[in-house]
Amino acid sequence: MKIVTHSPAETIEAAKKLGSMLRAGDMIAYKGGLGAGKTTFTRGLAIGLGLGDNVSSPTFALVNEYRGDKITLYHFDMYRISTEEGLESTGFYDYDFENNVAAVEWSENIAEFLPKDTIHITIASLGENDREITIEDGGRFAAAWD
């Protein structure tokens, strides 16, 4: 499924819609270059999950956690991680993915270690504010955009 947005606000709205449909155990794997809008999209996911909009890039922290009463969103940056040893050193395997949601930037660096049912989102810049967002989810969310 492809969605085209024309502003950061539209990208947040699309992600908010998706976030409202996520459930515990979901993992989002992002692909997209620097400045593509991965963190902006994550802001929308957090809003959709009821966690507010105080989302920032996890570039230097490697992971940011956004906690709610019922669910936590783990937001990872795997830009500098490319091996299983590196992944282990982040504490990745210690997080409670079964009961929460995770969003992973630069997921292509750890693709072989992600669960089989991971939701893949590719964000491509089409211009200054225009983005093409491709969601590969096995059709789970398609009806929301019909």
Write a structural description:
The protein is α/β, with parallel strands linked by helices. The protein has one domain (about 1-130): P-loop containing nucleotide triphosphate hydrolases (Rossmann fold, 3-Layer(aba) Sandwich), CATH 3.40.50.300. It has 3 helices and 7 strands. Strands 1-7-6-2-5-4-3 form a 7-stranded mixed β-sheet. Helix 1 (about 10-20) packs across helix 2 (about 40-50). The longest helix is centred in the N-terminal third of the chain and has 12 residues, at about 10-20. The radius of gyration is 14 Å and the shape is globular. It starts with a strand and ends in a 10-residue tail after the last strand. The relative contact order is 0.25.
Present the secondary structure layout:
Layout: E1 2-5, H1 8-19, E2 27-31, H2 38-48, E3 63-67, E4 72-77, H3 84-89, E5 101-105, E6 119-125, E7 131-136
Parallel strand pairs: 2-5, 2-6, 4-5
Antiparallel strand pairs: 1-7, 3-4, 6-7
Helix pairs in contact: 1-2
In total, how many domains does the architecture comprise?
A: 1
Low-confidence stretches: none
Which series of helices and strands comes N to C? EHEHEEHEEE
Average residue-wise pLDDT: 88
CATH topology, which one?
Rossmann fold
Number of strands: 7
Structural class by helix and strand composition: alpha/beta
| CA-based gyration radius | 14 Å
What is the top-level CATH class? Answer: Alpha Beta
Please give the share of residues in helix.
10-25%
What characterizes the major β-sheet? 7 strands, mixed
Q: Which second-level CATH architecture applies?
A: 3-Layer(aba) Sandwich
User: Roughly what fraction of the amino acids lie in strands?
Assistant: 25-35%
Count of helical regions: 3
Overall form = globular
Query: What distance separates the N and C termini?
Result: 10 Å
The CATH superfamily appears as P-loop containing nucleotide triphosphate hydrolases
The order of strands across the largest sheet is 1-7-6-2-5-4-3
